[in-house]
Predict the 3D structure of the following.
Amino acid sequence: MGIPSGMELVIIVLVVLLLFGGKKIPELAKGLGSGIKNFKNAIKDDEKTEDVANTDKKEEIEKKAEATTTSETKDNKTV
């Protein structure tokens, strides 16, 4: 099951033409292209959302660390 040779590709193209017709193939290609574009955009959006979530978590951890440090400093001053 390797890559189809030249003659096999010709047969595949002919079968596709017979099944879908010449007018339908450009529409199918356009739909496939837009589907791939939407998929790539969704991946990029997901990565951006993940980056924002990681940044928010880091900020939250830093705020907790500052609050802990501040409360420890106040406790040491009162003693």
Q: What stands out?
A: Residues 26 and 60 are 51 Å apart (CA to CA). The chain has a mean pLDDT of 81. The radius of gyration is 29 Å. Residues 26-78 form one domain.
